[in-house]
């Protein structure tokens, strides 16, 4: 992989000042291009896994997509005043990849193992990206006052992009040469010791992420249990209120059980229960104080009840036939600092006796289990 940007003698103050506005159409193009890149990467991985070689037509297409992205990012980072065209002719930004070695690419390194190996690179690149952002802001002021991008800062920003494109080439399986931890254009592949150390570090980082995800899931995955007098609830007397603390939220989401309408045939005109059936409607109020949207999933509410069947007393558990929040069908998100009524509709046999009601998923995680007495 070879990446470089020619250092400009002078830069346009006007173009630099309005660069954020000029990036709007480029962002739209990059958004569409990302779909192609994602599909092409998956197709390339599959081909390498089965045939140990990269299709040249796909390689040229994906390399061209990376090439345009490099020109776009260089324009956004103020490294050039040339608006990124689809043609690379006379561009000050150049990105070239060696042709993939046909028949010699490793199938066992594709995707998973390469992802583990690249974890340390991605961690370092995160910090370098923050440094590039600071450098770009300082360069913006430097260009406005002097008309020049400070050369040392310019070379640093180009070097970080060069590092990134080496990682991308390895991740895409254009080659199996583990990228070096270097900004320089003439850096060779990393040594075996560096590759082994990166693999160990990658497993440690991946394990840390797995532990973090498990911890977050366990924080939001516990099931709360409350006992509720069903007759009082059916008489319009509110049930319990529970507070849920979604992960990374600024506050709680409060779920209050308001009432059970039994029968609720008159409330739900879109359902016509058959002979020997009735409708039960459970109503909650959700008060979102989390600082973000509180999601109510489509299958969030389930009811367990017992009834008399031809085979004797039977227990059944069903998901709500209709679930709405604020008069909108789930899934739906309750905006921050707003309250919304939630209604769950069930069609049950006439002699059904509710035993247990569950509200789970979304902001509630494992949710709450109401045991009816």
Written overview of the protein:
The protein is α+β, with helices and mostly antiparallel strands and 373 residues long. It has two domains: 2-211, no CATH class; 223-372, Immunoglobulin-like (Sandwich), CATH 2.60.40. The protein contains seven helices and 15 strands. It has helices spanning 13-17, 19-51, 56-76, 112-146, 151-171, 192-221, 230-234; strands at 2-5, 93-96, 224-228, 241-244, 253-261, 277-288, 294-296, 301-309, 312-319, 322-325, 328-329, 332-334, 339-349, 353-359, 368-372. The protein has a six-stranded antiparallel β-sheet with strand order 4-5-6-13-10-11. Strands 3-15-14-8-9 form a five-stranded mixed β-sheet. The chain has a two-stranded antiparallel ribbon with strand order 1-2. Strand 4 (241-244) and strand 5 (253-261) form a beta hairpin. The N and C termini lie far apart (70 Å). The mean pLDDT is 89.
* Gross morphology: elongated
Kindly report how far apart the N and C termini lie: 70 Å
SSE string, helix = H, strand = E? EHHHEHHHEHEEEEEEEEEEEE
Low-confidence stretches: none
Structural class: alpha+beta
Major sheet attributes: 6 strands, antiparallel
Query: What is the radius of gyration computed over CA atoms, rounded to a whole number of angstroms?
Result: 29 Å
For the biggest β-sheet, the strand order reads 4-5-6-13-10-11
């Amino acid at each position: 992989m070879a990446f470089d940007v020619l250092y400009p003698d002078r830069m346009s103050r006007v173009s630099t000042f309005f660069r954020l506005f000029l990036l709007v159409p480029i962002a739209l193009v990059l958004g569409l291009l990302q779909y192609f890149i994602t599909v092409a990467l998956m197709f390339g991985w599959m081909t390498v896994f089965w045939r140990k070689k990269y299709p040249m037509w796909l390689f040229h297409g994906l390399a061209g997509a990376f090439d345009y992205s490099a020109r776009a990012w260089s324009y956004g980072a103020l490294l050039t005043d040339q608006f990124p065209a689809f043609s690379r002719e006379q561009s000050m930004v150049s990105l070239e990849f060696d042709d993939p070695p046909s028949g010699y690419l490793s199938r066992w390194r594709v995707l998973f193992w390469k992802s583990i190996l690249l974890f340390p690179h991605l961690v370092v690149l995160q910090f370098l990206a923050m440094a590039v952002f600071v450098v770009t802001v300082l360069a913006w002021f430097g260009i406005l006052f002097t008309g020049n991008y400070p050369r040392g800062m310019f070379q640093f920003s180009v070097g970080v992009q060069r590092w990134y494109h080496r990682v991308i080439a390895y991740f895409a399986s254009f080659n199996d040469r583990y990228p070096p931890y270097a900004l320089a254009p003439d850096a060779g592949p990393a040594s075996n010791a560096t590759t082994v150390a990166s693999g160990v570090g990658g497993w440690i980082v991946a394990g840390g992420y797995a532990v973090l995800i498990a911890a977050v899931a366990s924080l939001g995955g516990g099931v709360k249990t409350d006992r509720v007098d069903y007759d009082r609830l059916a008489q319009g007397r509110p049930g319990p209120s529970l507070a849920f603390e979604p992960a990374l939220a600024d506050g709680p989401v409060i779920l209050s059980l308001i009432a059970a309408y039994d029968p609720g045939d008159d409330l739900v005109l879109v359902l016509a229960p058959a002979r020997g059936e009735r409708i039960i409607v459970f109503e909650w109020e959700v008060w979102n104080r989390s600082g973000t949207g509180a999601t109510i999933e489509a299958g969030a509410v389930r009811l367990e009840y017992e009834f008399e069947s031809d085979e004797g007393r039977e227990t059944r558990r069903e998901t709500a036939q209709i679930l709405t929040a604020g008069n909108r069908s789930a899934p739906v998100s309750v905006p921050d600092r707003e309250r919304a009524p939630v209604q769950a509709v069930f069609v049950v046999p006439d002699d059904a006796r509710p035993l247990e009601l569950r509200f789970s998923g979304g902001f509630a995680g494992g949710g709450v289990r109401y045991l009816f007495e």
